[in-house]
Amino acid sequence: MSGEVDRFQHGAALATLLGDWSTGDGPLYRKLADAIAAAADDGSLVPGERLPAERELARVLAVSRSTVVAAYEELRGRGVVDRRQGSGTKVNDRRRPRHSDGRVRGGRGTAIMQRLIDGPGRLISLGYAADAGVPEVAEALREVADHDITDLLHDAGYHPRGLPALREVVARHYTNRGLPTSPDQVLVTTGAHQALVLLAEVYLRGASSVAVEVPSWAPCLDIFRQHGVRLVPVGLDAEGIDVRALAEVLTRTRPALLYVMPTFHNPTGRLMSATRRRQVAELAARHEVAVVEDNAYVGHSLTVDEEALPAPLAAYAPESGEVLTVDSLKGLWAGLRVGWVRGPAGIIERCARRKAMADLGSPLIEQAVAARLVPRLAELSRARGVVQRRRLAELERLLRQRLPEWTWTPPDGGSSLWVRLPGGHSADVYAQLALRHGVEVIPGSTMDPTGGHDDHFRIPFVRPPEELEELVCRLASAWTELVRHGPHEDLPLRPVV
């Protein structure tokens, strides 16, 4: 228990757990008390768990200390917490959680998953960067209905490894990009997320650590955290993951996996150079560390034609190297939920067994649609890139106009800007104010546990111009409140005697 009771000594971790606690009606102190009580009821806060100090939580939530004091006193009155001089505020030892309400809680990325479940509501959520599907998805679906559906219906419908036609076109796609691949090296999954889950199950049993880029996308990191491994951070430079730092980490820790996003890294949008890919692949092979390259954003180029991109990192690996390449059709439509992992046939077979246990195989009609789209990826990505560049330019224009103090490096690809707040301002604090102005911000602390990007956050630009304008308007209002007025003062009414 001693390892758990101080999980929330830093207020940012509790703020992430509480989600959009400040929305709705009523005074802030009562809404804060309600949110903490709900977390205790569903077991997210365990008996004996120490809550953050009043000043620390007030700082992160962008409220006055008196608001937190009033919330803690409200909780004490309800019997949710105990408060003692010198020992702080703890969840009541005698309180037992009710049955879970089923909400997604746990790691720093799970709040993003909960937002997908809840839907955006009145908020503009920056928790996901998914665009509407391209028209060619509908065209491919009609072709499947006209030409493929009869054969599909004569099939038993169970293909844990994936529809053979899709595995064949994916193998051909990689071969054409300089990575010779056969269909038995491809496993079709329900999106790239499932591919990462399966790989974690194969590699992390009994493992102690995984080397990861920082920053990185929090829901992906949570997949590894669920296996109880330690995440060993490695920073980035202009070409991708820092190879000198990586060499030191691989020598010192011998992780079970190295997880990288070489093609349009999330959240920075950086493209790893071909030279860097070779260095990483050779270094990992020398240390006998398997590499997972997550290329889920490969169809989101903003600077170069897709056909001019470097080959997947696996293409640069020596014969002794072990590289798993994860990809999906997110660039065409996230709702298609088709992804895959390419790797050594033996590893793919082990993943396929786990895939069969999970769902017996992904839906075949969606895979048949994907089989018609994969050969057109370069063409479709070029068309999508024209739209994305226009939206990025509009977002940058609006930010320079309304928030000229903010800075960023234009991305090579992807669907977001990685923005830095000036003056060392905390993105955790800003995120709390942004919530009250109708925007859900995912702060940099969620993506970098080292604290190196606490002043950053991600702004997706995959929105129509009118939505981008409203988004920046709300962000600017929240920023004005932060720099001019600081935390919100919210005191309960008390009788004067």
TrEMBL record:
The keyword Transport does not apply. InterPro entries: Aminotransferase_I/II_large, HTH_trans_reg/aminotransferase, PyrdxlP-dep_Trfase, PyrdxlP-dep_Trfase_major, PyrdxlP-dep_Trfase_small, Tscrpt_reg_HTH_GntR, WH-like_DNA-bd_sf, WH_DNA-bd_sf. Residues 81-106 are annotated as: Disordered. Coiled coil: none annotated. Pfam families: Aminotran_1_2, GntR. SMART domains: HTH_GNTR. Residues 81-104 have a biased composition (Basic and acidic residues). GO terms for molecular function: DNA binding; DNA-binding transcription factor activity; pyridoxal phosphate binding; transaminase activity. Keywords: Aminotransferase, DNA-binding, Pyridoxal phosphate, Transcription, Transcription regulation, Transferase. Residues 26-94 form the HTH gntR-type domain. The keyword Transcription regulation applies. PROSITE patterns: HTH_GNTR (PS50949). Transmembrane segments: none annotated. In the C-terminal section; belongs to the class-I pyridoxal-phosphate-dependent aminotransferase family. This is Transcriptional regulator with HTH domain and aminotransferase domain.
